[in-house]
Design brief:
Helices cover 34% and strands 18% of the residues. It is of the alpha/beta class and 428 residues long.
Length: 428
Amino acid sequence: MRFGVGLASDPVTILERTLIPFRRGGIVLLLGPSGSGKTTALSEIARRFPGGVGVGRMTFPAELAVVDRIAPGATLAEALSTLTACGLGEAGLWIRPFESLSDGEKFRARLARAIALLSRGGSVGPLLCDEFCTSLHRRITRAICFNLHKLAARRNLTIVLACPHDDVIEDLQPRVIVRFHGGGRCTVEQREVRPRRAVSFRRRLQIEQGCKKDYESFAAMHYRATDELGFVDKVYVLRDADELLGIIVYSHGPLELALRNRATQGWFSHRPDRVNRSLRILRRLVIHPDIRGCGLGHYLVRKTMPMLGTRYIECLAGMGEFNPVFEKAGMKRIGQYDVAPRCLEAIRALTAIGVDPSAHEFVLHVARRRRVRTIVAGVVEHWYAATTAGAKRRVDHQSPEFLAQAFRGLIGSRPVYYLWQRKPKKAA
């Protein structure tokens, strides 16, 4: 009564009758300010398509790692690809339980699980998402939009998103935009979709020569954070104004590699002069986790390899088993290494004395038991010897935590070997 509002009021039209066209492989964007009717429309779509998958309804058991719940029954490569496309591109996040994630990370995990369910044929309806990316940084939102557009087309998905921000349109490329104006009014716009080759912010990015120190801010973002960079030759960074979003490190390669010798018919075998003159190894490629999956990794590799001036560039990639980034950049996949015999011997030796390298207390064993440290240090030292000088001295000064993490990375590594060869110049 104070505000002159009666308890019994006239009916209010929340949403007019609206015809929204749906097509597989496309995205429908419900766009408008808060309270304009987007959520009501999404609820009505969910009612009419009971087989739909709601992102907000995705659940995760507390005891499972996120990666184990994303795509049950799919390959690991499929699960990692979907997680990365949805903005969860860090190995450390893949193995964490859902409840330990931030709110923004939880949204991305739910989005990834919903997409995986639809992709595996777990539902015949559309994917439905309210408040799409509203709590995320706008750059990561653009990256997710770009990847979502690709996923919808490749996996023949129907996706309906409700969002208050129109800056998603350029990268999302929706087939239909429903603009809500309030008072039940809305307009429907059907669009011709033009495939985008690059995420919108790539045109702002610059590739510049960097230095080894630039890698410090990227080291923690790489799944092999403890590995040495070896004798660094060149570093290039991907810059957006004052912020670094990517880095690539090229070093001098190890003297001998079996797959290199096979690919080059032994041209480098026992020829350190040729290795130093004509070959570099791509030691690190790190793109900021927020924008992975947008093609910036192979873009940075493809653009920088010719800058080195060497005849060959090689790469040993543990992620090569799951991510074809180097092949997309123009490198040739030569083969994959098995776990080294030295590592298998070390695992057997540790097992014989009751030590599990994957256990939480492994670091304590390395710190307190001389025999364990000797076994672990031997494997790490052998790896150092192939890439840097003073291997034993370096290992002697490493902490138990560092040695344990480096050892775990080495015993689980089955890297893929890639090789790039500069094309010969055409005769004038």
